[in-house]
Amino acid sequence: MIKKIKNPTRAGTFSCLLVFLLLGSSCRQAPAVKKHTAAKTGAAEIRYAKGFGIDYYDGYKLLNIYSGFGPDADTAQYVLLPKGLKAPEGYAKAQLIEIPVKKLVAMSSTHVAQADFAGVADVITGLGSFKYITSPLVRKNIAAGKVKDVGVDGTMNDEMLISMKPGLVIVMGNPDAKFSKYATLTDAGIPVMLNAEWLETTPLGRAEWVKVMAALTNREKLVNTKFDAIAKEYQRLAKIGRSALAKPSVITGMPFKGVWNVPDGDSYMAQFFKDAGTTYRWMNVTGKGSLALNFETVAPEALKADFWLNAGYVDSKKDIRAIDARYADFKPFKNGNIFNNNKRVNDLGSNDYWESGAVSPQLILADLIKILHPELLPGHQLVYYKQLN
Predict the structure, then answer these.
(1) Cis bond upstream, residue 100 (ω within 30)
(2) Residue 324, phi then psi, degrees to nearest 5
(3) How far apart are CA 145 and CA 29, in angstroms?
(4) In a domain, 204, yes or no
(5) φ and ψ at residue 281, rounded to 5 degrees
(6) 184 burial level (CB within 10 Å; 0-12, 13-18, 19+)
(7) What's this model's pTM, rounded to 2 decimal places?
(8) What's the confidence (pLDDT) of residue 73?
(9) DSSP strand E in 60-183: where?
(10) Could you confirm whether the keyword Signal appears in this record (predicted)?
(11) Which of 171, 179, 375, 389 has most Cβ atoms within 10 angstroms of its Cβ?
(12) Angstrom distance (rounded) from CA 190 to CA 188
């Protein structure tokens, strides 16, 4: 019987839990197979993320993505196996990924941030788009011709991808997609892994998906240490923000085609607002996504709000007024309290808030506290946010 090294996740806490895999099989306990003698790299310790689990066995790791295509999707399973070792029996429907991954195709800038965080950005040989990447190392490799543009998810150049022979393609789970659309790649022996950090509802939960990258590249020890420091700092800041006596009111976003999307009360962004010490009109609305509202619904709140955050693709109050003159009547417009999360945008329009910010929630929270309660963090300089004048 395989000796289990460590089981820090929920995947191993149920002895008889049956879930249907994305690829058509059910989860099962690891069967008895011959032990391998692979070097142990430590274990990823999952504390905040809900969407994945990693179990460690002698010679291989078992990665479960619980809901890659949406909250109601089936579990997808991946066996992470060092090169040259025999695959364990009992996982015929799971995809096999050779580790450490040496050639990676990333379809999202968040995957780039995770690779950067783990110190393995050099393994990226393909991207879904060059436009949205800010990582200096990856941009350098793009300029040197070491990274190819393989097309965005859904219209990927399968022929190019197959010729590149990557060790793994990481894609974003999409509620409207099915795994069968990647059949050309998987049939050619190229593993395709779902990454669903976007389903996490807390900043630390999203950031913790970097531990998937750690497991793929045998960087668990480094990533655990770095992430623990981030989590500790985030919790310290959240204690400061939540204890603030004043709770300034905020509005967020900007209408698009007549729809003003605002975060639900149980969402990722609402958690930031809560931890930063704000009053948010829709904080008590149950839901983990967003509310689709109209101008007439949001305007009464905007007229009296203290701050306007994340105002979209604008760089000045002039830009905002040009979109709709009525925005000039909002209290934060009049008081100069509009702060946008686009301070770190490069010449191509790539916004690092969506890249490195995905693995640096403590910096985003520090920015928000500095904006809303400047007296609480007097020494902090804004990283991702800037004031619009």
Answers:
(1) yes
(2) -160, 115
(3) 44
(4) yes
(5) -55, -35
(6) middle
(7) 0.88
(8) 67
(9) 60-65, 76-82, 95-99, 104-106, 124-127, 148-149, 168-172
(10) yes
(11) 171
(12) 6
- Gap between the Cα atoms of 162 and 32, Å rounded: 34
Alpha-carbon distance of 180 to 2, in angstroms, equals 32
More confident residue, 36 or 294: 294
- How many whole angstroms separate alpha carbon 13 and alpha carbon 27? 13
DSSP, residue by residue, 285-340? S--SSEEEE-HHHHHHHHTT-SEEE---S-SSHHHHHHH-GGGGGSHHHHHT-EEE
Question: How is residue 204 written in tokens?
Answer: 């630390």
- The two structure tokens encoding residue 272: 């930031």
Distance, in Å, from the CA atom of 341 to the CA atom of 313, rounded to the nearest integer, reads 9
What is the rounded CA–CA span in Å between residue 337 and residue 335? 6
pLDDT per position as a tens digit, 322-372:
999 999 999 999 999 999 999 999 988 899 999 999 999 999 999 999 999
Cβ neighbours around 201 below 10 Å, total = 18
Token readout for 51 is: 């969407």
b/e for 290-325, b at 16 or more Cβ within 10 A?
Answer: bbebeeeebbebbeebbbbbbbeebeebeebeeeee
Q: Could you say which of 179, 194, 228 is where a domain stops?
A: 228
Residue 113 banded pLDDT, cuts 50, 70, 90: very high
Cα separations in angstroms, 35 against 217, 261, 282: 21, 52, 53
208, 260: one domain: no
Tokens describing residue 376: 């609480």
Contact 221, 41 (CB under 8 A): yes
Residue 302 lies inside a defined structural domain of this protein: yes
- Regarding beta strands 260-263 and 279-280, do their DSSP bridges make them parallel or antiparallel, or are they unpaired? unpaired
CA distance 145 to 288: 40
Distances (CA, A) of 64 to 22, 54, 195: 10, 6, 11
DSSP label at residue 150: -
Count of structural domains, the chain: 2
Q: What is the pLDDT of residue 187?
A: 95
Q: Do 190 and 184 touch, CB atoms closer than 8 A?
A: no
Give the range of the structural domain holding residue 38, as residue numbers without chain letter. Answer: 4-228
Both tokens assigned to 146: 């070491």
Same domain, 74 and 29: yes
Taking the C-alpha atoms of residue 21 and residue 228, their distance in angstroms, rounded to an integer, is: 31
Quick one: 32 and 132 in the same domain?
yes
Residue 235 lies in a domain: no
Query: Which CATH number is 347's domain given?
Result: 3.40.50.1980
